[in-house]
Amino acid sequence: MPRARPPFITRRNLSNGAYILIIVSVLLIIAGSGVLFYTAVSDQIATDQAHGTATAQTNATTLARVITKTASAELNATMTAQTRGTATALASETVVAQAHATATAQANANVTATAQAVVRDPYPPYGGTLVLNDPLNDNSQGYNWDEYALPSSKDCKFVAGAYESTIHGTSGIERSKACFAENTDFTNFTFQVQVTVVKGSCGGVSFRGDSKAGNFYEFHVCSDGTYQLYNVDMGTISSPFASGSFPAIHKGLGQTNVVAVVAIGNTITLYVNGQNITSVINSLDSHGQIGCEATEIDNSTTVMFRNAMVWTL
Fold it and tell me: Is the pTM of this model over 0.90?
């Protein structure tokens, strides 16, 4: 039996409009998928960026905190170091100041000990106690040295780091001017002073004096190499008890002589530059003030005095 032939199927061709519609639909689907994909990707990127920003901010905040803590720690360390350094410096300065003070005290003690050793009584009987040691720079030692100026007559003053006695005049008559330490009164003693005749005739020491009454002993050396010891009574000069030339006297103006007198009872011993000149016996004055004097013989005389010392016996 012959096979039945399937019915003939007739295909219908699509029109151009249908193709276009199909293509547009496909494109729309693709575009929509792209938009969806882009949106998803953009959202993911935004999310990632947000997470990144947050992470970065968190990291930045953490880093800032770390830096702040580090800076604070460094600042604290610096301040602590500075404080410790300051404390150490202050402690060091204190130690140095204390060391200087100790050294100064020791130096002063050494100077005092040395001075005491050096300024022992250098004249027989050598047992004197130093009670006056005045450099004669000024009137600050409390001995109240005379200070006044009488034009065309007499001067007593401190000048150029020394004590100065001047007697003015060219009368050709021997006259003297004693400048006293008013706050002194000695009986048995050694009195020494450095004497420099810068102009005129003679200079030396006054002792056992009464400045108000004008009574005292006077011992001086002269620029010509001579010396004299005499008494002044109410301003009137007596005849010398001792006088003459002596080789130990430094002659000439501007020469310094160390003049000293040792008075014990009625015995008076004279020295110049450490050399014994002579001794005399006299009892007119038994105690009184010390002083520095200038003596005019031929013309005005100016004498400078330094380093007065007295040892009591």
Answer: no
